[in-house]
Amino acid sequence: MTRIARVVGGFILLIAGIAMLVLPGPGVLTILGGLALIGQEFPWAQRMLDRIKAAITRLWRSVTQPSA
User: Residues 24-30: contacts with CB within 8 Å, 24+ apart?
Assistant: First the structure.
């Protein structure tokens, strides 16, 4: 029952986040939350979340480190 609730909740967050990309609200954060929930059950979602985390880390490093 917990697995079903996690998957359904994750997909609801994912759909709501996609809608919030054009509507007011924290769409990107909601999508990340949905992927985090779904990623506990599906490897494809975990891989996608890992790629997004790596891209955010690279972006953060490029912004915070002074350019030479």
Answer: none
